[in-house]
Design goal:
Elements (H helix, E strand, L loop, with lengths): L2 H55 L2 H8 L2 H11 L4 E8 L11 E2 L9 E8 L7 E10 L2
Antiparallel strand pairs: 1-2, 1-4, 3-4
Length: 141
Amino acid sequence: MNPLKHNKGQIRTIEAVFAAFLLLSSLSLIQITQYKSEDSSDNLTIMAYNLLINLDSNGYLASAAANKNWSDLKSVMQSLIAPTVWFNLTVFDENMTRLNDVQICSGSAVADNIVSVNYLCATPTKDYAIYLINLQVAKVE
């Protein structure tokens, strides 16, 4: 018997295993790349909600909306958000009427991937008022 004939089958099996390993590893790299792009949007969404929750935790957000103190709200937003993040904040009343007559933003949009979150807040006074806060954020590219 010729020993070379038996080795051909083993080499083909090893080739097939390496080819399968190469294909599976390339597929796993593609999934990681897609996950990272979605992860950026998730991080922006979490950051936006955390910012609004922190502003509303002491009643500041509803108070600023009730008093229509837009310049102060813009200053607070600029101090809390990193300079590498663009933002645009709009305040609506319970009838979805826009209340802020001036823009509360950090300039014009600089990215295509803009995340928008909505947050409800209410004044704790006897003249109960509900406000819908729409915050749009994006990474500056």
